[in-house]
Amino acid sequence: MNESKTSLAVAALRGGTVIDHIPSDALFRVAHILGIENMPNAVTIGNNLPSARGDKKGIIKVDGIEFDRPTLNRIAVIAPKATVNIIRDYEVVSKHTVELPSTLMGIVRCPNPKCITNNEPMATRFDVSDPDTPTLRCHYCNHTVAGADAEII
Amino acid sequence: MNSHSLVAIDDLSRNDILDLLDRARYFEQNPNSRLLDGRVVATLFFEPSTRTRLSFETAVNRLGGRVIGFSDASTSSTSKGETLKDTIKMVSNYADLIVMRHHLEGAAQYATEVTGIPIVNAGDGANQHPSQTLLDLYSILKTQGRLDGLTITMVGDLKYGRTVHSLLMALRFFSPKFNFVSSHELRMPRQYVELCDKLGIEYHEYTDFLPQVIDQSDIIYMTRVQRERFSDIMEYERVKNLYTLRRSMLANAKPSMKILHPLPRVNEIAQDVDDDPRAYYFEQAGNGLFARQAIITNALGIDPLSNERK
Hints:
The structure holds two protein chains of two kinds. By secondary structure, chain A is mostly beta strands. Chain A contains three helices and eleven strands, in the order αβαββαββββββββ. Chain A has a five-stranded antiparallel beta sheet, with helices on one face. Chain A has a four-stranded antiparallel beta sheet with strand order 6-8-9-10, with no helix packed on it. In chain A, strands 7-11 form a two-stranded antiparallel sheet. In chain B, 38% of the residues lie in helices and 15% in strands. In chain B, helix 7 links the parallel strand 6 and strand 7. By secondary structure, chain B is an alpha/beta fold. Chain B has helices spanning 14-29, 50-62, 84-92, 107-114, 130-144, 162-171, 190-199, 211-216, 233-239, 281-299, 306-309, and strands spanning 40-45, 66-70, 97-102, 119-124, 151-155, 177-181, 202-206, 219-222, 258-260. Chains A and B meet through loops of A and helix 4 of B.
């Protein structure tokens, strides 16, 4: 029953992007990274939904937009297991998981207040290690932060 | 990053380090030259550091170059709100090389990304200070005759001390054996211990400064234990005198052993050690001149040893 409801919800989108398996506590940060707050498109957000793995998940559906891969990969820092469905004419035409880039430019704020990136008008840059439980190292000051704890700009 | 900049010691290979040390040895024998004739070096000290600045400026002067710059950000347009980027770009119009010290971490790395002229990092906050590490290495090489296979004992604040971290990273190429002597609260961060494990480097951790550790050491690298590093002030009071080196503790130390310290020292080395021939911390600071002459010529692509290498 639950299965068909979820399927219905996805299929209800005529065309656009469905991002599923977002950790519940990361959902609104993911929406922020994708710039959904300021979009005129129809958006459906669900949160604290039961997932097959027994924990809670969030889902975002955006009508009329197919996000490109580099944009979607930006959310991988806080939602490394998110899946992306691209929908056209009610059909899922592609399904993939997000991929964490090896370098993150201008996405995450450095947690070190004495880092140059927090004191100059410049983009941050982090090198990513261990894609499963990502650790980010600041390219400038060498401080590290766990991906799940990263503050998104 | 432009290839001749020096931001962090970790960026150097074993061969890079050996080449810089060859240069330092050359400059100790030939401190005065005209190698930098017609060159202008900017020393931009956004944070005051008189010793480091004088050492770099002496290095340039003894090589026949000229120096421009400032010793305090309050005398530069930084105090008017100019960004680091703009200051670096402006100075790049005038100088062939920038030596910079900044209180913000990562400042030197960022500087390399906004200019085409080489940058030498003379300290960026608690992050990197590669010329200190190079002078430490040169002091070790000069007093021991080699870098390979030495027993290095690091004492004091191993958690926050950037000098011991950078020295460990540089020595990883030279099959060292390490003794880490500190209180539990200030022990060597796990990332460095794990690196030793990964590279098969032998190390031992001690909370007591034991005679047998001193006696087997080729180098004892002392660091300052600062009160403000402790979350528990009782712990500080308990350990503050445990890591003080006294002359009586050197009775059975190797005659060739040398005691290093990045300075300034407070009470972690007793005054009576100064007269022991194994005390080397003042000469160590003096080696900074040759290490910095090596770094400056390398950054400018000048090879003082070209005739000897032919």
